[in-house]
Write a structure and sequence with these properties.
226 residues, alpha/beta, Nucleotidyltransferase, domain 5, RNaseH-like_sf, nucleic acid binding, exonuclease activity, DNA polymerase-3 subunit epsilon, RNaseH_sf
Length: 226
């Protein structure tokens, strides 16, 4: 019996019953204060993962994608911080005012995710995304997402002997991943999905190529202060 076969047996029935659809997401906001700044855009991309074949990386499913710009009036007199953020993500006042009404847009996102509370949501430094999205959902729909959120940043750092890279840009450079347009939510979500695929051989080598193992690795790195 090969070690891959042994690895499959170690996964057990609980991992075999794990969600086969994963979601990578990214977003754009008016700033970097999760308690104050406003959600502007959400993009998400579905992945297909077969937990009975852990050596195979999750497959990107381009047909299973979501992208939305939310309506925002913005500030009447933009300050320096506002202008800096526009230069980063390119979402100006005119684009914000043409976005989808916030409650309708967030409901569309929830509907696209589907009803499964086990559906994993993955991203790079996803704790910020989680805080902003949950706050917006509470404000607009009086609800929160019960899904597990998995941060790929500590996973990347764990797999690197020096505990780097720290940013998505550094991680992309380290693994030779190109992004069509950084700080555009859909392009960043795709780059993050490709990063996960690039990490997969190292995860397989560590026998950590599974949903539960990813969760444990992310949680352990945070606990250690990574």
């Amino acid at each position: 019996m090969s070690w891959i076969d042994s690895f499959k047996r170690l996964l057990g029935s609980s991992e075999a019953e794990a969600p086969r659809r994963w979601v990578v997401l990214d977003m754009e906001t008016t700033g970097l204060d999760a308690a104050r700044d406003e959600l502007l855009a959400i993009a998400a991309l579905g992945l297909a993962h077969d937990p009975t074949q852990p050596e195979r990386p999750p497959r990107i499913v381009l047909a299973d994608s979501f992208e939305l710009l939310l309506h925002s009036e913005g500030r009447a007199q933009p300050d320096a911080e506002f202008k800096r953020n526009v230069l980063i993500h390119g979402i100006g006042l005119a684009a914000r005012r043409q976005g989808v009404p916030r409650a309708a847009g967030l409901q569309a996102f929830v509907d696209w995710l589907g009803p499964s509370p086990q559906l994993p949501l993955l991203g790079f430094h996803i704790g910020f995304d989680e805080a902003v999205i949950q706050r917006a959902l509470r404000a607009e729909l009086s609800m929160r997402l019960p899904n597990p959120w998995i941060d790929l940043a500590p996973v990347v750092q764990t797999l690197d002997p020096a505990g780097r890279p720290r940013s998505l840009d550094e991680a992309m450079d380290a693994h030779g991943i190109a992004c069509l347009q950084r700080h555009q939510a859909s392009a960043d979500a795709l780059a993050t999905a490709e990063l996960l695929q690039a990490l997969w051989p190292a995860l397989v080598q560590r026998r950590a190529a599974g949903l539960r193992a990813l969760q444990d690795m992310a949680a352990q790195r945070r606990w250690l202060g990574g």
